[in-house]
């Protein structure tokens, strides 16, 4: 008969090797692990916890070592539900979800991207070793990403696009999660549906953990045989997730069907139209957008605005038109990072969307086409009353070869 579950909240100073760490009392961003629910088997793990800002944790004495008799627990719980309720109350009171400027949110988004990448790397490594996926741990990451999108939709989405070819597979998961959350909000889905969409976006490419790295990182076009191998990743990911813990039907569905197309030409099951669920149709749009705007081993990413233009041309057969339209609204017609030309002839980079108009974002101008020279950077809000300038059109970054475009928008309001 298994030992009874006794949950205790203890100070981190009282942690010992052999204890089963049930939950951290604090934000997912504050502790050094991507998930909870494991037995501490290395003293260095305790050192990492002590070095963090986490002060207390929950342990399960039914699954691991108890505290010494002389150590007083901070509190007890009779069920996991009690622990979850307490952590949820603490998280709600600590969350700051008011709208923040992009320049302010970028710093937090950078930390989320960095830790998110580490978490996805760990998940992929565990999948390669045959370990079950822990969806509960991934949900904490989704919450942090969703909170960032709430504070400012464009910051994390835009930062996650700035990945090297080597980072692509991992940060792509973080980016698609954020895109799915933003799209869910635009479609006015419930909070439960939004969290499900975010989790599905985070885990949609898990099957790539079983693909040969030399194929995933190949710097040239794949052969037919290699492409056949890569096309197996939705089925492999679905299998991995099916064997995991706490993975819901929506996540499984998006993993298996995010490469289906409305006209039935996708894979692996050639579904079409209404046969494809809403979340899978959303996943198809978010997956493609991040893929074509990111630097890959075999090509440089396209400009965000140009990417939306090209995707619009594919909508009739590839994407659900209503979902794609909502996606454009969630990002803006000229997403952050787009190079545009103003009616004055000056060039600028979009640094933030306006809540007033999709056609009038905030832009950092930095180049005069009339003088053919750089000018001191200046932020212009095209949506403000009395604004005289308008966007005359998008520009191809490759045609101008500016070496610092990403730095210009990523610095937000800070002069470059």
From TrEMBL:
CDD domains named among the record's database cross-references: HDc
Occurrences of domain HD-GYP (ranges): 145-343
Recorded superkingdom: Bacteria
Pfam family of the protein (one): HD_5
GO molecular function: phosphoric diester hydrolase activity
Listed InterPro entries: DUF3391 (IPR021812), HD/PDEase_dom (IPR003607), HD_GYP_dom (IPR037522)
Family matches, as PROSITE patterns: HD_GYP
Name of the protein in question: HD-GYP domain-containing protein (C-di-GMP phosphodiesterase class II)
